[in-house]
TrEMBL record, chains A, B:
One Pfam assignment: Acyl-CoA_dh_C
Co-factor(s): FAD
Residues covered by the Acetyl-CoA dehydrogenase-like C-terminal domain: 467-587
Protein name (Swiss-Prot/TrEMBL): Acyl-CoA dehydrogenase C-terminal domain-containing protein
Domain Acyl-CoA dehydrogenase/oxidase C-terminal: 281-444
Family according to the record: Belongs to the acyl-CoA dehydrogenase family.
Location of the Acyl-CoA oxidase/dehydrogenase middle domain: 161-269
UniProtKB keywords: FAD, Flavoprotein, Oxidoreductase
Length: 592, 592
């Protein structure tokens, strides 16, 4: 049985000490004082620890079952879903016009971390619904919004995103699902979709599928794609679910993890659907939600890893094995706790220093999304657009590594399913793959985002780094531990950008061959920036005589670890990037 | 359904072009010409591909079952085990006096790779038997050898190693299993052991357990430990299994992977056992087999990863998705194969360049073990003793990473169990943990091996590197691509050794805090040395007009990739090591 404690103190530190959210001039932010966010996070943490965490192993062991065409979720899921719904947790950052609580996304993200960490497979039902809600909210007609949104805000109806087909994953241009226009303005949707998370289940009255399909006249490739609303039950005039639509679950996938979430093969056999947004502009409609969805996956990366870390730290404190080399730490016991051993510390510090940096980065990005949405801040939008593939790719790669580190602390016991550490590793593995595999994130970063707006967002990021260094340059303690390493790492990132600019014109493969390393290089610098900000905030708090000195001192020590032991990776990433395309592309296909 | 093709060509290259085994003056090596080893490897590869590989998924899906105290293996395992046994594959490098084929270990290792890659869980039954065989062969009385070895060589009886107890994993000094001496010279063994691989099953007539236990009078900690032979069925005078011994399977563990191998909780309730080797010298008896056992686990790391790689490469050639940025590679098809994309190449090259280097390193170590055993070469023994934790720790960490990379090539399909890629990842995960967790390997390396014999083996390794660089310094093509990077990386390794020497005296935690990075730093330099040797061998073959130019050219290109893109990691590892113990040990236990 695993434990989970909501990291409320740490989130509060980021929201208030680092981002000063209640001091920001943004609509909806004025209510976000320490007391208010503390109450929200404590209450959400209680649901996470008491209701969702105990169901995490149940979901893994039982999985979902397909019975006579209907998906049954694991024992206890439905009751828990009702509880989450009734507590209003599905509506946090939704539009009050449709029953939402209207809080900023930065709060939605923070609450989302706790729910995800305690039970990722469970929380995905709500997460997918939120994605579909956002799409309808952004692109739906007034009628569509009135019909679907209130029920989706409350999760009485849940939502899905139907993109992938057996032969078309990353390459959506090849998809074959067809939409035939009908005289009444609706379409008949025919085709097969795979990997549909939360595709069907027994926890809601209706499932609202958003389906990418090709309608006549749109041309080849992604240009011909439109997005359709295809409900499981057609909605009657009085707004309740009526006739069953012509769609069915073809199969449930057997996956490495997230067994508690139903991953469906969906068959559409002339199912009735309605165009969402403009005809043949389905890809654009999808992409408007992409930043939020991808940051949501980055969140899964550190959230699940944090749950794994908490268990590893607890085990390292409790498990007695061996003696400290510097003298017995537990002389009255048969052995010392694992945590006395330097290599166990190295393991735990790798985890902790990543997790706290990741949380800060994702929360900052959520705040940038708020700036972009609530204040039409184009600069914030450009920056978060640039950072999104980094958050998705880097945080999930490192989140997975972190979960593996946590599992390793348990030795052989970590390999036994009942211990729960294997589930964290198996669950988190998918975050590197779905919502755009991490290689695709790297391609998006280097191939599109880096050059967007003539490179302005990238320059803006470098300015922020420079500003941070300049602001604190007289602080002796920050200089050696934070500012110098950040400067070095940032120079590596600049050198990589320069290299791509110089070489990319000659051979486009050069930038692509270095794209994955660039994503990680960027990720390290971004976390270095976050740690510098956090260290500065901790220094201020200590200087101002904050009571919780232990917390701020541990924050500084954890940050120093990241800067000293993780940030040097930037040099290796730069060296790889500079080796160019030749080593990567040298072999003929038959030589693999 | 996964594929597996024995990499015979590559193993032959290492055995003959790189190690020139038939030119070595060692007993048993005189027969090992190209033709002979080719015949052996082709035949073993056929068993691996045709018999074992098809059972790999079966073993994963069915797992083992405990029925009325007896473990049932998955369908087809017993018939396959008979086939392996009848083919003589269990006896390859065993002593002819007991029915073995008497081949050197270097051949045993090469054959072992093929069996392990095609079905790791299955091959462990034989691997554990081989470990127990080696222990009895090294420490048994003539009577014990005559009683047990012939049956174990043929695997009519299989063997196990019983070390771990619930509260004693790495720290064996705490174990509680007791051995009470009896008047007839035997002992009664009482206690519980966990994580006993191949602890019981239905494929052999008897199971010979080797059990660590405390006999009276041995003192505290590991000093009081002895090793005992405890057969499942007591052997009668005519050498056949007779009365059932007082031991039983308490439970079968539910594991993340290797489901086809029975991992047992073993209960000994006054079971009859016989001392193996000297009283109270059980740890020493265990450790004599440790090098071989740990290199065997390192082998599992690259063997399973190679199977994963082969499937990823095949998928990347077949799966059509997206278009090459440099122009359509498959203009008549709907899309280009994945393999045109630079980041897919980067992924595959990371795998391939690691795997081939790992195979060379492990094979070289097997050869060093042969030198040590067959020619009493103390220098070889010292060197392989130093390299063993590197082979175990580095190759399994990187093997796991490689399997994850291979899974990633499949996108979402890699997460679906039926595809088989998840099994590779789940199976290989245990190699980082058992036979001494990799953190313990790092501790062994830095805490014991580095200073062994006054540091002579470490100096010997540096001499080998220098010699390699000097030998080829006039070869222009090798210089830039191989010799220079190897020199740089080797200097990083030397700097790390110097740092430990200078700092280790002041604070023992300094070396331990850097031990894991040191193991990886060493691993990279060792693979750099292997790649330089392989590149030199490939250059010679090309110069001498070898027919198979494609093979040797791809070898050079793959090596250049490793040197350019993997070896730069040494700088990061050195930077981490030099950051010392302070960042690692800064937090109080309650701050985690």
């Amino acid at each position: 049985m695993t434990i989970y404690n909501a990291p409320v103190r740490d989130i509060q530190f980021i929201l208030h000490d680092v981002l000063d959210i209640s001091g920001q001039d943004l609509p909806g932010y004025e209510d976000l004082d320490r007391e208010f966010t503390d109450a929200i996070l404590e209450a959400a943490g209680k649901v996470a620890s008491d209701v969702l965490a105990p169901l995490n192993a149940v979901g893994d062991q039982q999985g979902c079952r397909l019975e006579n065409g209907v998906v049954r979720t694991p024992d206890g899921f439905k009751a828990a879903f009702d509880q989450v719904r009734e507590g209003g947790w599905t509506a946090i950052d939704c539009d009050p016009e449709y029953g939402g609580q209207g809080m900023p996304y930065v709060i939605g993200l923070s609450v989302g971390e706790l729910m995800t960490a305690s039970n990722m497979a469970f929380t995905m039902y709500q997460g997918l619904t939120h994605g579909a809600y956002s799409a309808i909210h952004a692109h739906g007609t007034d009628g569509q919004k009135a019909t679907y949104l209130p029920k989706m805000v409350s999760c009485e109806w849940t939502g899905t995103m139907n993109l992938t087909e057996p032969h078309a994953g990353t390459d959506l241009g090849m998809l074959r699902t067809r939409a035939e226009p009908q005289d009444d303005g609706s379409y008949l949707i025919t085709g097969q979709k795979i990997f549909i998370s939360a595709g069907d289940h027994d926890m809601s009255e209706n499932v609202i599928h958003l389906v990418l399909a090709k309608a006549p006249g749109g041309g080849e490739g992604t240009k011909g794609i439109s997005l359709f609303i295809v409900p499981k039950y057609l909605v009657t005039e009085d707004g309740t679910p009526g006739e069953r639509n012509k769609l069915s679950v073809g199969n449930l996938e057997h996956k490495m993890g997230i067994h508690g979430n139903s991953t469906c093969v969906m068959n559409y056999d002339g199912a009735k659907g309605w165009l969402l947004g403009d005809l043949h502009k389905g890809m654009r409609a999808m992409f408007t939600m992409m930043n939020e969805a991808r940051i949501g996956v980055g969140l899964q990366g550190y959230a699940v890893a944090d749950a794994a870390y908490q268990n590893a730290a607890a085990y390292a404190r409790e498990r007695l094995q061996g003696r400290a080399i510097t003298g017995d730490a537990n002389p009255s016991g048969p052995a010392d706790p694992l945590i006395v051993h330097p290599d166990i510390r190295r393991n735990l510090m790798d985890q902790k220093s990543f997790l706290e940096g990741a949380r800060a980065l994702a929360t900052w990005c959520a705040h940038l999304i708020d700036r972009s949405h609530l204040a039409n801040d184009a600069e914030a939008e450009g920056l978060v657009s640039l950072l999104t593939p980094v958050v998705k790719g880097f945080l999930t790669d490192k989140g997975f590594e972190t979960a593996v580190l946590a599992q390793q602390v348990f030795g052989g016991h970590g390999y036994i399913e009942e211990q729960g550490m294997s589930q964290f590793v198996r669950d988190i593995r998918i975050t590197m793959t779905y919502e755009g595999a991490n290689g695709v994130q790297a391609l998006d970063l280097v191939g599109r985002k880096l050059a967007a707006e003539g490179g302005k967002p990238m320059m803006r990021f470098f300015d922020l780094v420079k500003h941070e260094i300049k602001t604190h340059e007289t602080d002796e303690e920050l200089r050696a531990g934070f500012l110098e390493p950040l400067k070095t790492a940032s120079k590596d990132l600049q050198a990589a950008v320069m290299f791509f600019m110089e070489q990319g014109m000659k051979n486009p493969n050069t930038a692509l061959a270095g794209s994955y390393d660039f994503m990680h290089l960027f990720g390290h610098v971004a976390l270095g920036l976050m740690w510098t900000r956090m260290a500065a905030a901790a220094r201020s708090a200590l200087t101002e005589g904050a009571e919780d000195r232990d917390f701020f001192q541990s924050k500084l020590a954890t940050g120093r670890y990241y800067m000293a032991r993780q940030l040097p990776m930037t040099a290796t990433h730069l060296a790889r990037i500079r080796s160019g395309a030749e080593p990567v592309m040298a072999l003929a296909e038959n030589q693999f």
